[in-house]
Predict the structure.
Amino acid sequence: MAHVAEEDIETIERRFPEGVTSAQVIAFFQDRGVRLSEATFRRYVQLDLLPRCRRVGRLGRHRGSEGIYPIGVVRRLNEVKRHLDEDFSVEDMRRMFRVSEDDFQAVKAAVGRVAAAAGDEVAGRPDAVLARQVAEMLEAAGRLETKMREVAAHLVRRCERGRLAV
């Protein structure tokens, strides 16, 4: 098997919600019997199959920084491995991955910032109109995320069907 079980992915997502290093990702897959090297991991990043890391400074003087990948990289890498088993090409996967979990999280983060700003503004001074508007915004954001996921899933199915029809 060249990919890992959903339960294992959920476990690492709960354990490292702020992100993981490439070494942690590689160890995670290798511990489950999935072949993955540092070079292969870096190549997938270069091919835009996996998201890029963000640099985070290490505590202590002259310790430099390390690359932290969003935790979604584990799920995406598992998809890459599964699709490779199914003989998908890199270009097939690029088409399927045009929309990513990062896109959904970016929308959630933006809505969260607006809601937090509204909450800060009315702290100690209730404002029924603003509270209603924020509630409506959060409800609309939930519907938007659901619709975005539906469209993304449809795109993936379409790419998979198109590839299989060839």
Summary: The first strand starts at residue 54 and ends at 57. The chain has a mean pLDDT of 84.
